[in-house]
Amino acid sequence: MLNGKEIESIKLDEIDTSKITDMSFLFANVSDDFCKGAMNASESKKEALKNNKVDIDFIIYSCKNPVKRQDFSGIESWDTGKVENMVSMFYKAEAFNQN
Fold first, then answer.
1. 68 and 43 in contact (C-beta within 8 Å)?
2. What dihedral angle (degrees, nearest 10) is formed by the CA atoms of 16, 14, 80, 63?
3. Is 7 helix (H, G, I), strand (E, B) or coil?
4. Dihedral sign from CA coordinates of 1, 7, 64, 34
5. How far from chain centre, in Å, is Cα 85?
6. Residue 18 — pLDDT band, cuts 50, 70, 90?
7. pTM higher than the cut 0.90
8. Where are the domains of the chain?
9. Coil, strand or helix at 9
10. Which of 98, 85, 37 is nearest to 63 (CA)?
11. Would you say 88 and 24 are in contact if contact means Cβ atoms under 8 Å apart?
């Protein structure tokens, strides 16, 4: 897995996103309380989230590996034509370049 500095150094315009179908929580900045709730969720709650096309495993990954990326240069070139889920893609993002 990548750490925060490695993630920040990835050039977004060099990523082929043409086959990605789920970008939920991709750049989420989730709180400790949210993470505790996700990690301690009952199996029935996890199943309910999955039924609503929310990837609980990715939420838990986001909790363990928080993304604090602020520079999103190049994201405008992403091919999102096959993406079916962008739920909370930028959840709680507080600051990033807005060019």
1. no
2. 90
3. helix
4. negative
5. 11
6. very high
7. no
8. 1-6+31-93
9. helix
10. 37
11. yes
For residue 14, report the phi and psi dihedrals to the nearest 5 degrees.
Answer: -100, 0
| Count of CA atoms in the C-beta half-sphere (13 A) of 90 | 10
Rg of the chain on CA atoms, in Å: 14
Q: Could you give the count of Cα atoms lying within 13 Å of 18 in the half-sphere of its Cβ?
A: 2
Residue closest to 15 by CA, chosen among 84, 73, 93: 73
DSSP designation for 81: T
30-46 confidence digits (pLDDT tens): 666 666 666 666 776 66
CB distance 53 to 87 below 8 Å: yes
The SS3 call for residue 3 is coil
CB 55 within 8 A of CB 25: yes
